[in-house]
Structures are given as structure tokens and as C-alpha cells.
Amino acid sequence: MSRFPLAVLVVILSACGTPAPVANPGVDSGTPGVDAGTPGTDAGVDAGTTIPDAGQVVVDAGVPRCSFYDAKVNCPPVITPVAGRDVYWQSPSSPAPAAGFPAVIIYQGSFFAPPTVWGEVASSSLFGGFHQARMHALLLERGYTVITPSALAGVAWQTNSGLPWDTTSDKAFIDALLDGMRGGTFGPVDMARVFAGGISSGGYMTSRMAVSYPGVFRALFIHSGSYATCAGVACILPTTMPAQHPPTRFLHGRGDLTVPLYTAEQYQQRLTAQGFESDIVI
Q1: SS3 at position 219
Q2: pLDDT tens-digit profile of 22-35?
Q3: Smallest Cα–Cα separation from 108: which of 122, 82, 89, 91?
Q4: Of 85, 189, 88, 219, the residue nearest 148 (C-alpha)
Q5: Tens of pLDDT along 45-59?
Q6: How many angstroms separate the CA atoms of 185 and 270, rounded?
Q7: Which residues are CB-neighbours of 66 under 8 A, at least 6 positions away?
Q8: CA–CA separation, 6 vs 3, rounded Å?
Q9: How big is the CA angle at 68 (ends 65 and 69), to the nearest 5 degrees?
Q10: For residues 210 and 107, is the Cβ–Cβ distance under 8 A?
Q11: pLDDT, tens digit, for every residue of 79-105?
């Protein structure tokens, strides 16, 4: 998998593990790590920091965005309305590259909307919320803008609802989100370095990015999900994968009964068989 953008993938895998000291193996090797149990190198945003006002683009430029502790992460977001939905996001505190920051869109799982994984998130949070919050912090530390859009009513994405994609409110929302990224709504974004990922419903939605937005995303990660139109055990894959399918990493639990492992394995195997770059971490 030598051509995968390694910075994003190292962050994803480190964030999915057990709560551990934050370090930078293989990425920014000169950057100090963060010791568990003490405020990390991103200390500077207190746990009680107020969430910024909607529409605010920059929060204390030069001040690290997140605080790391052994049992919690605190990353105050910016909240920006787009097409009638709130988008929670944050950009790095470092100066932006000339082309803008690379950006990662992370799609929520069912019922776990962005407010559950921003601000102060404890290690006891349900369904891995702490690990996603930690991933936000790691991505910001490494210079990525993190964007987490809200599903309709904070519930789930419509990619596999059975409705034609072009008729869904998600389609209009994602079109507006991408237009906002191009237009500077989320600060300076390098549109040649845009990634996407998500868990469960968000994993299916991540696949939708390959199906309906060819050429937009540089790489994807699909966690506990499968093809854009699959839903749990109901998973019929197309014979031919979408053209320009981005490099894709799958992450899946072996004992997952809601989204069976075989649905992700079949998708991954079909991508590989058709010459697309892909792997799976079980």
C-alpha cells in the first residue's frame, strides 16, 4: 500500500486503538509526542472553552486547538450552518500552506452526531466517541482541517435509503458543503488533498463519495461499512466498481453482527480485482 497517503492512515489506525500516549510514528518524526496523564503538546485550550459562534472561521490563530489527557480529549469546534445543517469543524493553528490545508471529511455513524465527538470527550464515551475525538486532535496536530457534517436530524445518511441519490437532501447538502470548501467557508482548503471517512452509516456515506463524486477525494477510509447502497446483511455489489475509485482502507470488527465483515471484504476484494488500491484491517 505504498501509494496510500500515509499521514492520514497512521492517524486513523492510531486513533482506533486503545487510549495511549499520543505519538507520531512515521509522521513528522521531529514532533514531540504527548504523555498520557498530563496535558499534551496541544495544551492551551482549556477544558471549559466555549464553543465558537456559528460562522466563525478562525479561533485564536497560533493557539493549539486541542488538549490531550489520559482519559479525555478536548477540541472546541467551529460550528457553521450549511444548507440548513450544522457542520462542526476546525482547522490547524499553524500557518496554512500556499495551497491551503489538506482536509478530512468524517461522516457520523447513526445517532452519533458531531456534538458527541467535539468539545470535551471522555474515554468512557459510548461507541468509540473518544477515539474519534482523539483522531480529530491527531489530524489537527498534523496539519489537516477536520470537517464533520451532520446527517439529517443527526440520525443517519440517506445514501442507502433506497431513494435515488439525486433526490435526497443529503445530495444537496454535500454539494453545498464541497462548494463551501472551495469558497473558503472552512478556511483555506487544498481541494487536491481532500479525504473522507466514516463509521457505520458514515462508512456507507464514504463509499458514496467514490460513487457520486469522482475525482474529488484523494483517499477514503470505511469503518464498519460497505458499498454506498448496501445496508447491513443486504449488500449487492455492482459488477463494475465506479471509475476513479480512490484508494480505500477498510476497518472492520470480525464479530460485527450489524454490518457483517463479509460485506466489507467483498467490496475490498472487488476493488483490488479491478485494479483499485485497497486493503482491509480487521
Answers
A1: strand
A2: 333 233 333 333 33
A3: 89
A4: 88
A5: 333 333 333 333 444
A6: 37
A7: 40, 42, 45, 73, 74, 75, 136, 137, 140, 141
A8: 8
A9: 155
A10: no
A11: 999 999 999 999 999 999 999 999 999
